[in-house]
C-alpha cells in the first residue's frame, strides 16, 4: 500500500485496553532445534469494531482477501487498509485490525529464536507494518502450509520453516521495492486496486491499461516489474485463491467457477488443476473447512 495513503493519527490507541495473547502451540523437539516454527494459520470472515489492542507474542502476517478497514498499532498509529494489503503483527507491539463492515483475511503466525535474528538483520522491517503484498506471498505460503500443518515429523517441520523463510524473503523484497524508487508508481497501485476489486470480471489488459493511462505494452512491462508476474498471471492467481476458499466452504464447483469469473466450469477445472496441482473436486474433499479464530 502506498505510504501516502496512510492515516497516521495515533489517537485511536489512547482509548483502548491492551491484552497479551496467552494461547500458543507447543513446538515439537524438531521445531525447537530448528529454532523457527509455525504456530498456526487460518482464514476467516470477521466483522465488528475495534475494542482493544493485543500483544501477539510472536510474528504474524495477515493478508486482506476482500474488504477494507483499519490497522491500528500503539507504536505506528492507524493505517487505512484494503484488499491486497499485508498487515504485520510484531511480537511486542500492541496492535489490532478491523474491517469497515466485514472482510476476509488469511494469516500466518510463527515464532522461535530465529525470528529475532531476522529482525536484527532487517528482514522484518518495523518501519513498514502495512504494505501491498504484490507477489501474493502470504496466500501462496498459506496454501503450501495447509496440507502439512498437522504433521509432526521432522521433515514437515523443516518444510514449514523453509516456507516461512521463503515468505519472509519475498515480503522483504516487496517492502524494499515499494519503499524504493518504485514507491511513487500510482499507475500500478491504481491497477492493483482495480484488479482486486474486479478480478472475477472480464478485465482485458488493453482496457485495464487505458484505465491507468498507459499503453498495453508499457502497462504489461511495468506491471511485471512491480509485481513479479504478468497481469494475466496475477488475476488468475487471485481467482484461484478465492476458488480454494469457496471450495473449502463446500460451494459447488459450477458455482465457484462462476463466482471467480469463469463462464465455462470445465475450463475453470482445467485451470485449477494446472495451477493448484489437483482437480477442484479432489481439493474440496481433501480440504474441508475448519473454523479458526483470528490470530
Task: Please explain how this structure is put together.
By secondary structure, the chain is α+β, with helices and mostly antiparallel strands. The protein has two domains: 3-181, Regulatory protein AraC (Jelly Rolls), CATH 2.60.120; 185-286, Homeodomain-like (Arc Repressor Mutant, subunit A), CATH 1.10.10. It is 43% helix and 21% strand. The chain is built from eleven helices and ten strands. It has helices at residues 29-34, 113-120, 137-145, 154-179, 186-198, 205-211, 216-227, 231-248, 253-260, 265-276, 280-286, and strands spanning 17-20, 37-47, 52-55, 59-66, 68-73, 77-82, 85-89, 95-99, 102-111, 130-132. A five-stranded antiparallel sheet has the order 2-9-4-7-10. A three-stranded antiparallel sheet has the order 6-5-8, with no helix packed on it. Strand 5 and strand 6 (77-82) form a beta hairpin. Helix 3 packs antiparallel against helix 4 (154-179), helix 6 crosses helix 7 and helix 8 runs antiparallel to helix 9 (253-260). The longest helix has 26 residues, at 154-179. It is globular. The model is unreliable at 1-13 (pLDDT under 50).
Give a brief outline of the structure.
The chain folds into 2 domains: 3-181, Regulatory protein AraC (Jelly Rolls), CATH 2.60.120.280; 185-286, Homeodomain-like (Arc Repressor Mutant, subunit A).
Secondary structure layout plus pairing:
Elements: E1 17-20, H1 29-34, E2 37-47, E3 52-55, E4 59-66, E5 68-73, E6 77-82, E7 85-89, E8 95-99, E9 102-111, H2 113-120, E10 130-132, H3 137-145, H4 154-179, H5 186-198, H6 205-211, H7 216-227, H8 231-248, H9 253-260, H10 265-276, H11 280-286
Parallel strand pairs: 1-3
Antiparallel strand pairs: 2-9, 4-7, 4-9, 5-6, 5-8, 7-10
Helix pairs in contact: 3-4, 6-7, 8-9
Amino acid at each position: 500500500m502506498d505510504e501516502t495513503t496512510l492515516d497516521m493519527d495515533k489517537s485511536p490507541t489512547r482509548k483502548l485496553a491492551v491484552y497479551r495473547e496467552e494461547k500458543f502451540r507447543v513446538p515439537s523437539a524438531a521445531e525447537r532445534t530448528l529454532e523457527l516454527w509455525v504456530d498456526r494459520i487460518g482464514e476467516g470472515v470477521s466483522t465488528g469494531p475495534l475494542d482493544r489492542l493485543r500483544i501477539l507474542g510472536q510474528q504474524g502476517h495477515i493478508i486482506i482477501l476482500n474488504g477494507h478497514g483499519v490497522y491500528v498499532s500503539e507504536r505506528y498509529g492507524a493505517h487505512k487498509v484494503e484488499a491486497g494489503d499485508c498487515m504485520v503483527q510484531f511480537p511486542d507491539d500492541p496492535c489490532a485490525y478491523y474491517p469497515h463492515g466485514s472482510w476476509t483475511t488469511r494469516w500466518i503466525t510463527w515464532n522461535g529464536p530465529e525470528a529475532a535474528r531476522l529482525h536484527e538483520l532487517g528482514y522484518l522491517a518495523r518501519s513498514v507494518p502495512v504494505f501491498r503484498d504484490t507477489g501474493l506471498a502470504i496466500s501462496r505460503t498459506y496454501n503450501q502450509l495447509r496440507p502439512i500443518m498437522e504433521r509432526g515429523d521432522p521433515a514437515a517441520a523443516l518444510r514449514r520453516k523453509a516456507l516461512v523463510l521463503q515468505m519472509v524473503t519475498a515480503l522483504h523484497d516487496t517492502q524494499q521495492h515499494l519503499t524504493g524508487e518504485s514507491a511513487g508508481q500510482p499507475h500500478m497501485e491504481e491497477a492493483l486496486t482495480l484488479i482486486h476489486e474486479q478480478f472475477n470480471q472480464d478485465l482485458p489488459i488493453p482496457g485495464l491499461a487505458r484505465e491507468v493511462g498507459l499503453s498495453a505494452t508499457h502497462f504489461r512491462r511495468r506491471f511485471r516489474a512491480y509485481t513479479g508476474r504478468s497481469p494475466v498471471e496475477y488475476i488468475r492467481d487471485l481467482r484461484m485463491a478465492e476458488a480454494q476458499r469457496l471450495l473449502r466452504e463446500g460451494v459447488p464447483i459450477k458455482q465457484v467457477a462462476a463466482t471467480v469469473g469463469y463462464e465455462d466450469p470445465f475450463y475453470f477445472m482445467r485451470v485449477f488443476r494446472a495451477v493448484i496441482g489437483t482437480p477442484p473436486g479432489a481439493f474440496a474433499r481433501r480440504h474441508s473447512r475448519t473454523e479458526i479464530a483470528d490470530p
